[in-house]
Amino acid sequence: LELSRMPACNVQVLGAQRKELHGFSTASQLHRGFMAECDLVKNAPLPKQTQLIRMISTKATLAARVDAFKSYPGGHKGQQMREEIIKKFGRIQEPPPPKPKKALERPDEQPRRKRAGKRLTSFRKRVQMTEL
């Protein structure tokens, strides 16, 4: 009952131990608890493990709430959620489709107007027609 009241972000770190670093960097610490011991997480590639832990913790929280209200006594809802996680994570692991190469647009036929700045004015003055 207590697990059903807990938010998913807190379920994710249940069982994580604090490390005494004495002023050293905490950049190498991972935000993991008991969820990291799940077989799905262990078999996943390292860069995707945190994303998978988040997905599992949210589904675990939903499953705890379903259990607390005793709405599915058979337990098939938990299996259904596990299959959803596996299916969704399979889609996440697939490489994204390649972007189609677009053809360049046809350039305008009209020449562009030149802006009259100091540089262009001095250039025109140098190359202008002179009277003899």
Give a verbal description of the structure.
The protein has 132 residues and is mainly α. Helix content is 47%, strand content 0%. The protein has six helices and no strands. Helix 4 (49-69) packs antiparallel against helix 5 (76-93). The chain starts with a helix and ends in a 5-residue tail after the last helix. The mean pLDDT is 84.
Key phrases:
6 helices; single chain; mainly alpha; 132 residues
Helix content: 40-55%
**How many helical stretches?**
6
Structural class: mainly alpha
**What is the end-to-end distance?**
102 Å
What percent of residues are in strands? under 5%
Q: Which geometry do the CA atoms define?
A: elongated
Oligomer: single chain
Unreliable spans? none
* Rg (C-alpha, Å): 31 Å
Global mean pLDDT: 84
| Number of extended strands | 0
H/E series, N to C?
A: HHHHHH
Most strands sheet = none
List the helices and strands and how they pair.
Layout: H1 2-5, H2 8-11, H3 39-43, H4 49-69, H5 76-93, H6 118-127
Helix pairs in contact: 4-5
How is this structure best summarized?
With 132 residues, the chain is an all-alpha fold. The chain has helices at residues 2-5, 8-11, 39-43, 49-69, 76-93, 118-127.
